[in-house]
Amino acid sequence: MIEILLVEDDYNARRAYAILLRSKGYAVEEAQNGQIALDKLKKQSFDLIITDLKMQPIDGMQVLKATKTYYETTEVIVITAFGSPEIGVEAMKFGAYDYITKPFDNDEFLILVKRAIEKGKMFQQVKFLQQELDEKYKFENIIGGSSPVMNKILKLVSQVATTDSTVLISGESGTGKELIAKAIHTNSLRKDKAMITVNCGSLPQNLLESELFGHVKGSFTGAIKDKKGLFQEADEGTLFLDEIGEIAPQIQASLLRFLQDGEIRRVGDNRIFRVNVRLIAATNKNLEEEVEKGNFREDLYYRLNVIPIHLPPLRERKEDIPLLIYHFLNYHTKKSNREKPAISPSAMSMLVDHQWYGNVRELGNFIERLIALNSKKIIEIKDLPFTNSKSIRDISERRNHNRSLTLSEMEKSLILETLEECNGNQKITAQQLDISTTTLWRKLKGYGIDVGEYKEA
Ligand SMILES: Nc1ncnc2c1ncn2[C@@H]1O[C@H](COP(=O)(O)OP(=O)(O)OP(=O)(O)O)[C@@H](O)[C@H]1O
Ligand SMILES: [Mg+2]
Per CATH, is 3-134 categorized as 3.40.50.2300? Predict the structure, then answer.
């Protein structure tokens, strides 16, 4: 039921509006003056406030201001007397959704009411999502305080967040590299500016270069006009370069120039631009090895590696597993409106002993599945949905059946089978395998698998 607070000191007018609104199914709470309106607002929230402006001793403007102070997302429509539109405009400056002048047409009034309610709802949703995001990247919500290594990492993260130092995050897939990168940005002085994330591996390298640095018209076929790059878009904010180990030598050189001098040059342009960008990079490759192999510039590696953060695999910080399990249990039961189950000690110890090759992401997906498939009060070993999940773990089981295959051959065949089952849909395949789409993409590339062949005809 949509609840409207209607504030109008003229008895006849108020009755007429109330009857009209109720006839359309709205619940209407009436207030015969500003003071009563404020009292009601203190007690509860409404979906919409409609208020007359001229009232004694507390006028509609004060009702508007109080509403916007206590309920940022609630919209207010003000009713102005004939011949004084400027005061309606004034009200809009203080956040009123719109004003309508007496006497007004009923239909026009109802349309305005409907729109204002929709806008309020949308505003509320955006606000909620924003809060959820802010919540997620608060340090308290990054679980890891139980293990000494993560404890140290989280301390380091909170220290470097407020600096402008370049950070290089490494770790296996699913260990939380992106989460840490976002936490750094969210807790930095740049938090109100953009954070732009680029997956350096997912684009052809010449395209990546123009995405990052921009280009000028005519610099290559298809460059039909000048284009700003992401470095410029991220000015004053943070640029997160994921899969940094993938970048081609030419881009490595441009990146080095940025890190040395803060300067960038667009593709096909001689001019130099200065940008103020904080760089965070992540990789699941061992960059030092890549340097030794000659795939990655040593000077760039040192420039990137100012603050190195290595996230250890979950199996090397098992102390964190129980807390992560409670964290995901909380999250997924809340999300699906379920009671939170307890976990029997033996089931817990099995979960702690598990290898979790897909790391925190795999654990999170596992708990989500557990909640979806189960409504028991206590989860025991037999309830654990291990058999339903395909993952790297299955490979080790197969290995026992088929000793002639190497680990990577088995991984490849598992990927092929899953792709086939999922009709070539990479997102679902990645979910089934408990790996990120980036990791899947990397493996597909590595094994030379053409996804096109698996798409349904
Ligand atoms: N310490 C943690 N506390 C809470 N949630 C976590 C933690 N670490 C990771 N997660 C969650 O696990 C999931 C995977 O994390 P994230 O995407 O940051 O991993 P990644 O290292 O970037 O993986 P990939 O290399 O596959 O891209 C996300 O949903 C993230 O929120
Ligand atoms: Mg990632």
Answer: yes
